[in-house]
Amino acid sequence: MSAVETRIAELGLKLPEVVPPLAAYQPAVRSGNYVFTSGQLPMVDGALPATGKVGAGVTPEAAKELAATCALNALAAVKSVVGDLDRIQRVVKVVGFVASAPDFTGQPGVINGASELLGEILGDKGVHARSAVGVAVLPLDAPVEVEIQVEIAE
User: Fold this and answer.
1) N or C, which end of the chain has less CB nearby within 10 Å?
2) How far are the Cα atoms of 59, 77, 129, 147 from residue 36, in angstroms, in the given order?
């Protein structure tokens, strides 16, 4: 087990299987020393644990936990391309989408779930640039979706 996966286990988590694509795309692709993940939904064992809009049916606290699940799914996608998460040199960018009620403006706090988990797992390598965007709807009525870009060692 890699040091990163050991850290995931120490946090009481388990790296999931890669979530199969919902359409015509790959969960992650490599270009040079970078891996770009597709948007990852908060799937757990093949299902969404919650659906709906944040601020109307889904609490910001629950959405923050779902964003952490998205980040874990993104790490699984990275592993599917590079084989070993210890090759991650740095998380470069995180982009988070939050299906938001019209008056909800707490998208950054929701996506903190992904950012904080990456920091807990990867330490300084998990510090990244980020965007947190409110949207009307996400695939399968998911409350949140996260994609990451990572730099890897040869």
Assistant:
1) C
2) 29, 9, 14, 8
The pLDDT of residue 110:
98
CB 58 within 8 A of CB 106: no
CB 5 within 8 A of CB 34: no
The residue type of 81 is: V
| H/E stretch holding 107 | helix 107-122
Pairing of strands 144-152, 34-37: antiparallel
- Write the single-letter amino acid at 34: Y
The percent of the chain in helix, strand and coil, each rounded to the nearest 5, is 35, 30, 35
Rounded CA-CA distance 54/104 in Å is 7
Token pair, residue 89, equals 């040199």
Residue 31: its pLDDT value, please? 98
pLDDT in tens, 120-146: 999 999 999 999 999 999 999 999 999
DSSP letter at 38 equals: P
3-state SS class at 42: coil
The total number of residues written for the chain in this structure: 154
